[in-house]
Amino acid sequence: MRLSRTILLSMALLVGLSVSARAQDRFEIFGAYSYLHFSPTITGVNSRSFNGGGGAATLYFLKIFGVKADFMGYGSTTFSRTFNTPVIIPGNGIIPAGTYSAQGNMFTYLFGPVLRIPTPLIKPFGEVLFGGSNTNGYVNLSNAINQGGGTIATPNQHPFTLAAGGGVDLSVSHRVAIRLGEFDYVLTRYTNPLTSTNNQNNFRYCGGVIFKF
Fold it and tell me: Are 36 and 186 in contact (CB under 8 A)?
């Protein structure tokens, strides 16, 4: 009988702990505006400002540790590059002298861990996200050069992308919060059609509304 009671008490304790842990889990959906300051690493082309938005979903465990999926899209921006003399790029063709303009948008898809301080009103958090991204800017620039008589080849790319940073959430109610600011360093690894540089150091801001479940 004692053994049976011990087993029953142990099972009840495990069930109670499981229910408690589940009760502390929290699923959040984030609807965001996002600003991306992108550095294209092409000599003569300044950094670009992208405006866009998207969403993210985070599953928290014990209110502290979470796993996040993050998807952001950014509208087109126009950039131009002028070559005063023809340029020969070894192994990648010729760029005739002239001015070439192109448009480019961008999309990122990132996944990774989130750590936060679950205070009642203000919740600071940090994150490291990994994944990929895509922009048609480099391909469009290559097409513009080729239409002007060049022979540059740039494939469509989905390179490794990383975002590391953090932010602050303000609770409005039990189900709603405002993300006052999320600030991330963003690394992308695009190979551009003009040089062999393949590291772009960028900055991202996100803000918006969080729905908690």
Answer: yes
As a whole number of Å, the CA-based R_g of the chain is 24
Contact predicate 200/187, CB 8 Å: yes
Query: Which residues, listed in sequence order, are joined to residue 36 by a DSSP beta bridge?
Result: 50, 204
Q: How many CB atoms lie within 10 A of CB 146?
A: 18
Domain annotation for the chain: domains and CATH numbers: 25-212 (2.40.160.20)
Strand partners, 20: none
Q: For 174-199, how does the pLDDT look when each residue is reduced to its tens digit (9 = 90+)? A: 899 999 999 999 999 998 767 666 89
pLDDT (tens digit per residue) in 14-63 = 344 334 434 445 899 999 999 999 988 777 778 889 999 999 999 998 88
Report which of 86, 94, 97, 197 is spatially closest to residue 152, judged by C-alpha positions. 94
**Distance between CA 24 and CA 159 in Å, rounded?**
36
Q: Say which DSSP state 140 is in.
A: H
Give the single-character DSSP code of 143: H
Residues in CB range of 35: below 8 A, 6 or more apart: 49, 50, 51, 204, 205, 206
Residue closest to 30 by CA, chosen among 61, 53, 63, 64:
53
With beta carbons less than 8 A apart as the criterion, state whether 200 and 182 touch.
Answer: no
Max CA pair span of the chain: 94
pTM metric for this prediction: 0.83
